[in-house]
Amino acid sequence: MKIYFGPGSVALAGLIALEEANAEFEPVRVVLAEGEQRKPEFLALNKRGQVPVLIADGQVIAENIAVLTYIANRFPDAKLLPLGDPAKLARAYELLSWFATNVHIAIAQIARSERFSDNADVQAGLKESGKVRLKGVLAEFDRAASGTWLLGEDFSVVDPLAFVAWRWAERFEIDLTPHRAWAALVDRIKARPSFVRATAIESGLVTRAA
């Protein structure tokens, strides 16, 4: 199993999930800032030029939701999704979809405004509106973090996204002091061994080969 990830990206969630599952995998770093996601060898895997990409069971799996749900289903003993509880599973899919269609879109407006327009003035407007939008959607994490984890008492593939969003918000200098429940959730995530191992891989401090 092989996962292509970009440091600082949402692909960290996949690394954490694989570590939670104690899976054997090879992490492959894609340096987004240097445009490695646009090189022919990567585009041959994912023509969209985006991470994460997971190679597993002879298949190329792209898009974060697909990667996370594959890992959860491939390693059911890790209990990374509530597969036996339809209501909780629906909530997991709701949060995964919300992150992709709200949080990630706001981030793209700020950090990847060239995806939406070639006009410099339009790009500037997108960046500003993206920050406003991001501040609005981030409050959802406080509301969702009423339990130990986002789905209740059990850690799931949804939880790492709370840290991913927190890190993005810090990068864009958004005031996070009002978000106490979310901050506590982030601290619990950072205390997990899977987070420590995954961030060490992300930073290049360790590698883990299959």
Estimate the mean pLDDT confidence.
91
- Percentage of β-strand residues: 5-15%
* Overall 3D shape: globular
> What are the secondary-structure elements, in order, as H or E?
EHEHEEHHHHHH
DSSP strand count: 4
Query: Could you give a short account of the major beta sheet?
Result: 4 strands, mixed
| Count of helix runs | 8
Rounded Rg: 17 Å
Which secondary-structure class do the elements indicate? Answer: alpha+beta
Q: List the strand order in the largest sheet.
A: 2-1-3-4
- Terminal-residue CA separation: 7 Å
Overall helicity: 40-55%
Low-confidence stretches: none
Describe the protein.
A four-stranded mixed beta sheet has the order 2-1-3-4, with helices on one face. The chain is globular and about 50 Å long. The protein contains eight helices and four strands. By secondary structure, the protein is of the alpha+beta class.
